[in-house]
Amino acid sequence: MKRTLLLILCSTATLGAATFASAQAAGPVGGAPSVEAPKVKRGPLVIEREIFAKLNLSADQQKQIRELVKKLGKDLKAMRQANKAKPDKDELHKKQLEIRKSYLDSLKTILTPDQLKQYRELHKDLRKKQAEERKKAPQP
């Protein structure tokens, strides 16, 4: 009787430990391993924020640039909404270039020549970095 009781106790303990161990080893859904794609920063406004943080802007420049970036966001949003009605890639690209040129022309009036030079260098570097990160990111 003691032997049977001991055997049942050991079997139950072993089965419980095995169940606990397998439950801990399972991945998020159906035991699949958890793989998270690296987060890639996207979009022109993200790049602009990173660049402006490095330019040592005066309070007045910060205010002017904040207003300019808001205007850029509104212009891009309006362009996308206008393009929903009649999707035309060539027209969309042309409008994007016009908005970008207007933005850069306004930026030239706000930044000093040294800041503008640094802006262009940082912009080029960050775009290059983003392109590399996009290549590394797993495709869905």
Tell me what the structure shows.
With 140 residues, the chain is an all-alpha fold. The chain has 5 helices and no strands. The model is unreliable at 9-18, 23-28 and 30-38 (pLDDT under 50).
Keywords:
single chain, 5 helices
What is the average per-residue confidence, as pLDDT, rounded to a whole number? Answer: 74
Give the low-confidence spans: 9-18, 23-28, 30-38
What does the overall shape look like? globular
Which range best describes the helical content: under 10%, 10-25%, 25-40%, 40-55%, 55-70% or over 70%?
over 70%
Radius of gyration: 28 Å
How much of the sequence lies in strands comes to under 5%
How do the helices and strands follow one another from N- to C-terminus?
Answer: HHHHH
Q: How many strand units?
A: 0
Largest sheet: none
Secondary-structure-based class equals: mainly alpha
Our count of helices gives 5
Report the span from N to C terminus: 60 Å
In short:
With 140 residues, the protein is mainly α. The protein has helices at residues 2-25, 44-53, 59-85, 89-110, 113-136.
